[in-house]
Amino acid sequence: MKIEGITDVFFDLDHTLWDFDKNSALAFNKILELNHIDIDVNDFLYHYVPINLKYWKLYREEKIEKKALRFGRLNDAFSAIGYQVEEVVINKLSDDYITHLTRFNYLFENTFEILDYLDLNYNLHIITNGFDEVQHKKLAQSNINKYFKTVTNSEMVGVKKPNPKIFNFALQSANSVNSQSVMIGDSYEADIIGAKNIGMEVVFFDIHNTVIDDDIKRIDNLIQLKKYL
Questions:
Q1: Burial class (CB in 10 A: 0-12, 13-18, 19+), 179
Q2: Running DSSP on this structure, what letter comes out for residue 2?
Q3: What is the pLDDT of residue 131?
Q4: Could you name the domain of life of the organism this protein comes from (predicted)?
């Protein structure tokens, strides 16, 4: 069933449009090779991925700063595989990762198709918790920045999703209101609950078949947004 009365569509970026896991894996392959770190990349990523999610949750909850996130996720992942790395090397790897991450720009299936479709009838926007210096490069280098009228990131606002301030800031920047706006994202906590709490419509991009409230609209492929918009 179509959602009526929507004028503005807000997307999360990482894990929703921009395929973070795939691009991140390619970036790690590159920087580990450049820095002569001789480990099994798949084994490293097996530990890194959940560790990274844990650190992002702490970052989202304002319990750690960006510097602690960038160092801690790497340090803990190397510790998990029993590979000792000096602090100076971890800091270099952290910098190299940010540098190389945006050189890989795979998007989720049907990203361009759905953005072309939505762009005909809606104003499109981004709300992201990602780092300012990285998110704009992702949008530009994956050739999707042209679709979005505004881009709101947590560093601009000083708070992160699900804090209502970032959603209200984004609505104000878009010259829209909650009752005419929908949020689409992969994080149930940050995107869906955060937007729902301020009265926005929501669509959960649920590629992992999460057990959630059955009243939440959900998709597992972006093209399915045509059901709702």
A1: exposed
A2: P
A3: 85
A4: Bacteria
